[in-house]
Amino acid sequence: MSDNPMPAKLEDKLFLLKITRDDHSHIEILSNDVCLRCEEKWCTKTCPAEVYHWEGDHIVVSYENCIECGACRMICPYNNISCVMPRGGFGVQYKFG
């Protein structure tokens, strides 16, 4: 038996975050038409907090789940996601240690 504990799953780590939810989204899809033409749908595959998902012919952004990692902006090949930091007092508080 190893002395190293099992590494925590991503879901376990996300559960520990404190998120102060805002009623105003800090994420905007600039054009749903661009998303419709995107074959890879990288944002839905890359976001660790599952912020992006499809409902019919439009993308839904669950901004209140965002952990502010910036992966969505970096992975979108069309630069179609506007993601800024949440307003002061809102968003994620990380615990270190």
Question: Could you describe the 3D structure shown?
Answer:
The chain has a domain at 22-87: Alpha-Beta Plaits (2-Layer Sandwich). It is of the alpha+beta class and 97 residues long. It has a two-stranded antiparallel ribbon. Strand 3 and strand 4 form a beta hairpin. Helix content is 23%, strand content 21%. It starts with 9 loop residues before the first helix and ends with a strand. The model has no long low-confidence stretch (mean pLDDT 86).
Helix/strand layout:
Blueprint: H1 10-15, E1 18-20, E2 27-29, H2 32-37, H3 42-46, E3 52-55, E4 58-61, H4 71-75, E5 81-83, E6 91-93
Antiparallel strand pairs: 1-6, 2-5, 3-4
Please report the number of helical segments: 4
Instruction: State the shape.
Output: globular
Q: Which parts are unreliable, with pLDDT below 50 for 5 consecutive residues or more? A: none
- Give the helix proportion (percent range): 10-25%
Q: What structural class is derived from the secondary structure elements?
A: alpha+beta
Which fold name is given in CATH as the topology of the domain at 22-87? Alpha-Beta Plaits
What topology, given as strand order, has the largest sheet? 1-6
Gyration radius, in Å = 16 Å
Largest sheet: 2 strands, antiparallel
Our measurement of the CA-to-CA distance between the termini, rounded to an integer number of angstroms, reads: 25 Å
Helix-strand sequence: HEEHHEEHEE
Regarding CATH, which class of the domain at 22-87?
A: Alpha Beta
Percentage of residues in strands: 15-25%
User: If you average the pLDDT, what whole number results?
Assistant: 86
